[in-house]
C-alpha cells in the first residue's frame, strides 16, 4: 500500500506553500500526492508565483477536478494518511468547519476528519476576527490541526524559500514523513547531563563546551 497524501490548495495568499510541499514529495517515489486545486487557487498561483497550473499539477501523482465530487479522494474507502490544505482560505476553512462539502477539496477534508485521519490546515489570513477563530476552534474540535504558516526566525532564514521550508518541514512532521528541511531543535544551549547519568549521557549531550560549571547546580 503506497503512502497517499491528499493535498488541497485553496485561494488564499501563500500558494508557494502547497507548491513546495508537492515539490518536496515529488522526490519521494514511495509517497503519492493526490492534488485538488480550487479555482481561486489557480488565480493566486498565477498571481504570486512563476508556476503555470500545468507545472503545479505535474508535481502531483494524481490530479482531480474540483467539481469531481465522485473522485477517489471523496470516499473514505480510499486509504490515505491524511490531507494538507496549503494554503487554506477562510472560505475553505468555513466550509470544512461546517461540513459544507460542495466541492472535492472540502469533501476530501470532511472525509479525512470522519475517517479519523490527520487533517492539517495552513490557514492564511490576518488579522483574525472572532468568526475566524470560532471556525478554527470547530475544526480543531473535530480533530483537525490548525497550522498557520507563521514564519519562525530562530533558524536564521535568508530567503523566502527558507521561511516556506520551515513550515513545510513542520507539516511533514505531523505525518511522520522524514524531511530534511528543518533540523531538530536541540536547544540554544546544550543540555546539562543530570549528575547521576553524567557518564552515560555525556556523549549524547555533547558538545557541552558552553555549559559553565555554575549552571550545573
Ligand atoms: C491575490 C489574492 C490573495 C488572497 N488572499 C487571501 C488570503 O490570504 N486569505 C483568504 O482567506 N482569502 C484570500 N483571498 C480571497 C479568496 O481567494 C476568496 O475568498 C476565494 O473565494 C476563496 O475560495 P476557495 O477557498 O474556494 O479557494 C485572496 C484572493 C486573491 C485574488
Roughly how much helix do the residues carry, as a percent range?
Answer: 25-40%
Strand order of the largest sheet: 3-2-1-4-5-6
β-sheet strand percentage: 5-15%
CATH superfamily membership of the largest domain: Flavin prenyltransferase-like
The CATH class of the largest domain: Alpha Beta
Per DSSP, the total helix count is 8
Distance between the termini: 52 Å
CATH architectural designation of the largest domain: 3-Layer(aba) Sandwich
Bound molecules: flavin mononucleotide
Write down the Rg.
20 Å
Structural shape:
globular
Order of helices and strands: EHEHHEEHHEHEHH
Q: Decide which structural class fits the backbone.
A: alpha/beta
Largest sheet: 6 strands, parallel
Number of domains: 2
Low-pLDDT residue intervals, each spanning 5 or more residues: 208-217
What's the pLDDT, averaged over the residues?
Answer: 92
Amino acid at each position: 500500500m503506497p503512502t497517499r497524501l491528499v493535498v488541497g490548495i485553496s485561494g488564499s495568499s501563500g500558494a508557494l506553500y502547497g507548491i513546495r510541499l508537492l515539490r518536496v514529495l515529488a522526490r519521494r517515489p514511495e509517497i503519492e500526492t493526490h492534488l485538488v486545486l480550487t479555482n481561486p487557487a489557480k488565480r493566486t498561483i498565477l498571481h504570486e508565483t512563476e508556476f503555470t497550473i500545468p507545472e503545479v499539477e505535474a508535481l502531483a501523482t494524481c490530479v482531480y477536478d474540483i467539481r469531481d465530487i465522485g473522485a477517489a479522494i471523496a470516499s473514505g474507502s480510499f486509504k490515505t494518511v491524511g490531507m494538507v490544505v496549503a494554503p487554506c482560505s477562510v472560505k475553505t476553512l468555513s466550509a470544512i468547519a461546517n461540513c459544507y462539502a460542495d466541492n472535492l477539496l472540502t469533501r476530501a477534508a470532511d472525509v479525512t476528519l470522519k475517517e479519523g485521519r490527520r487533517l492539517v490546515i495552513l490557514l492564511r489570513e490576518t488579522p483574525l476576527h472572532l468568526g475566524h477563530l470560532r471556525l478554527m476552534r470547530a475544526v480543531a474540535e473535530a480533530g483537525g490541526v490548525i497550522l498557520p504558516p507563521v514564519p519562525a526566525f530562530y533558524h536564521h532564514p535568508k530567503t523566502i524559500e527558507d521561511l516556506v521550508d520551515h513550515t513545510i518541514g513542520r507539516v511533514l512532521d505531523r505525518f511522520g514523513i522524514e524531511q530534511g528541511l528543518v533540523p531538530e531543535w536541540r536547544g540554544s544551549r546544550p543540555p546539562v547531563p543530570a549528575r547521576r547519568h553524567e557518564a552515560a549521557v555525556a556523549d549524547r549531550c555533547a558538545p557541552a563546551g558552553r555549559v559553565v560549571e555554575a549552571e550545573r547546580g
